[in-house]
């Protein structure tokens, strides 16, 4: 696997070990994108955030 894949795997493992911190990062990124796009892509950012959470074991749907 290439360097990018190795980094992604390391990030996923770190998120699994620190899910609360990972949740804060995902929420912050989602909020930032929504703010900068005027919520134009809100459904897509919700879906992406949920997928990110599932990748490290937090499959809970977005609470809004």
Mean pLDDT: 90
Regions with little confidence, pLDDT below 50 for 5+ residues: none
> What is the distance, rounded to the nearest whole angstrom, between the alpha carbons of the first and last residues?
37 Å
Q: Tally of extended strands?
A: 0
Helix percent reads over 70%
- Number of individual domains: 1
Sheet bearing the most strands, described? none
- Strand proportion: under 5%
Number of H- or I-type helical stretches: 3
Based on CA atoms alone, the radius of gyration comes out at 13 Å
Q: Can you tell me the overall shape?
A: globular
Structural class: mainly alpha
Order of helices and strands: HHH
Organism: Streptomyces apricus
InterPro entries: Antitoxin_Rv0909/MT0933
Protein name: Antitoxin
Keywords:
mainly alpha, 3 helices, Antitoxin_Rv0909/MT0933, single chain, Antitoxin, 64 residues
Characterization of the model:
Residues 9-53 have a biased composition (Basic and acidic residues). Residues 1-64 are annotated as: Disordered. It comes from Streptomyces apricus. This is Antitoxin. Pfam families: MT0933_antitox. Helix 2 packs antiparallel against helix 3 (42-55). The chain has helices spanning 3-17, 19-36, 42-55. 73% of the residues lie in helices and 0% in strands. It starts with a helix and ends in a 9-residue tail after the last helix. It is globular and about 35 Å long. The chain is mainly α. The protein has one domain.
Characterize this entry briefly.
By secondary structure, the protein is an all-alpha fold. The protein has 3 helices and no strands.
